[in-house]
Design brief:
The chain is mostly helical. It has 4 helices and no strands. It has a single domain, classed as 23S rRNA-intervening sequence (de novo design (two linked rop proteins)), CATH 1.20.1440.60. α1 runs antiparallel to α2, α2 runs antiparallel to α3 and α3 packs antiparallel against α4. The longest helix is centred in the C-terminal third of the chain and has 30 residues. The model has no long low-confidence stretch (mean pLDDT 93).
Length: 128
């Protein structure tokens, strides 16, 4: 389930490990009122991606499947906002943390592209 570049093919596993990376990032971040608020939002939206994919897998209809993947995609896009805010707000000058944020944004772009593709394919199919 892992390709030559080390990427995980299974979207459920990929978003699970993404959520773990978000948790680890939040534990490294310098604490302030601003960072606490933004990190809380990031943790919520970043972990919601996987939770909604799990809900989609248990759906009873194509419409419900697409709905939950749509929510996962929206959570991914929201997570991009929070990561960008952390990166650009000068809440940290730590280059290791900023590099980690950059990699998380790259991973999240790939994840949201995959989610959008799954939604489009599900909409195009007669059955899901």
């Amino acid at each position: 389930m892992i390709n030559q570049g080390g990427k995980i093919y299974d979207i459920k596993k990929r978003v699970y490990f993404f959520a773990i990376k978000i948790i680890k990032l939040s534990n490294k971040f310098p604490r302030s009122l601003s960072s606490e608020i933004v990190l809380k939002q990031l943790l919520r939206s970043g972990s919601s991606i996987g939770a909604n994919i799990i809900e989609a897998k248990a759906s009873s209809s194509k419409k419900e499947f697409i709905k939950y993947y749509g929510i996962a995609l929206k959570s991914g896009n929201e997570s991009k906002f929070w990561l960008g805010l952390l990166r650009d707000s000068n809440l940290t000058k730590n280059q290791d943390i900023l590099t980690e944020i950059k990699h998380l944004l790259e991973e999240l772009n790939e994840i949201t592209n995959i989610l959008a593709s799954i939604i489009l394919k599900a909409k195009a199919k007669k059955y899901y």
